[in-house]
């Protein structure tokens, strides 16, 4: 059928794979944003810089410490998550009772600081990060060639995204988190340390961004601009899915990645704006987003 349209199947499935990979990063990053906004009501514009910082920490662990990719997948989210906890305690915690604009301005400023420091230190040319030997090569599926590492990125993203959704939506810990955002006084009466829970929640959201940064490091060059180029699209994904909707962030992230890939096949000129066109249409008919709840 696609050959009748003048589109080779290899080109179609290749672009769908690229779209699915982009969607994997959209999903993880928008999930972190949704967790932070949905549970803390903070618009975290530092998220792109924290994603980029995760990729840089992975590169530093390999270059200066000799710790490879698999160690980075474990250590980087912890390291960057701890920096997020420090930021939340020292700065963001002071803004919870203020308008959302103050949090946005603070986190935007922090993003510029992180990006500027790394740009001054390492430049903008990009630093290579090798694919781990266990995931080198690929599989010939007949209709397309699937690089092993790209397949791993999609699988790892699905596991992390739906694992996070399950914890927040289906476990007692998730119930405590949701209750703490709606009635912290009542939750505190049960002996739960609400401020600590909020701090750890922000740290977890930041850790998700860092995890995505490690996954991205072997695919894209590690450079200070990699987060700035992505965060605007991720915010559009969050708005389409519904601000604060965990499931909406996941489904919309993967779905829009595929839509972007298909657009590159049928109408390449529109591929860079298709997500924003969809956002405008969704906001016209459903201002709360596809999965958002109307206040």
From TrEMBL:
Annotated coiled-coil segments of the chain: none
Transmembrane segments: 12-35, 68-87, 99-118, 149-168, 200-220, 232-259, 266-285
Membrane topology: Multi-pass membrane protein
Superkingdom of the source species: Bacteria
The protein's name: Branched-chain amino acid ABC transporter permease
Subcellular localization: Cell membrane
Keyword terms: Amino-acid transport, Cell membrane, Membrane, Transmembrane, Transmembrane helix, Transport
Organism: Aquamicrobium zhengzhouense
Protein family membership: Belongs to the binding-protein-dependent transport system permease family. LivHM subfamily.
One Pfam family cited in the UniProt record for this chain: BPD_transp_2
């Amino acid at each position: 059928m696609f050959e009748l349209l003048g589109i080779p199947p290899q080109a179609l499935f290749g672009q769908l794979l690229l779209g699915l990979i982009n969607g994997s990063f959209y999903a993880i990053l928008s999930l972190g944003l949704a967790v932070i906004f949905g549970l803390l009501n903070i618009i975290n514009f530092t998220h792109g810089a924290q994603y980029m910082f995760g990729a840089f920490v992975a590169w530093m662990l390999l270059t200066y410490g000799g710790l490879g990719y698999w160690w980075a997948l474990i250590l980087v989210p912890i390291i960057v998550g701890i920096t997020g906890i420090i930021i939340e305690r020292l700065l963001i915690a002071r803004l919870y009772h203020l308008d959302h604009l103050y949090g946005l301005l603070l986190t935007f400023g922090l993003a510029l600081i992180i990006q500027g420091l790394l740009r001054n230190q390492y430049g903008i040319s990009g630093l290579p990060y090798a694919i781990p030997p266990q995931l080198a090569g690929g599989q010939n599926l007949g209709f397309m060639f699937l690089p092993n590492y790209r397949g791993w990125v999609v699988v790892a993203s699905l596991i992390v995204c739906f694992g996070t959704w399950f914890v927040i939506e289906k476990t007692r810990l998730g119930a405590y988190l949701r209750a703490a955002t709606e009635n912290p006084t009542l939750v505190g009466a049960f002996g739960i340390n609400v401020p600590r829970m909020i701090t750890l929640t922000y740290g977890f959201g930041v850790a998700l961004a860092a995890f995505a940064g490690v996954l991205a490091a072997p695919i894209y060059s590690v450079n200070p601009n990699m987060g700035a180029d992505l965060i605007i699209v991720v915010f559009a994904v969050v708005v389409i899915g519904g601000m604060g909707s965990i499931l909406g962030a996941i489904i919309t992230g993967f779905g829009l990645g595929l839509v972007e890939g298909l657009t590159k096949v049928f109408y390449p000129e529109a591929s860079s704006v298709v997500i924003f066109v969809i956002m405008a249409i969704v906001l016209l008919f459903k201002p709360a987003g596809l999965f958002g709840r109307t206040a």
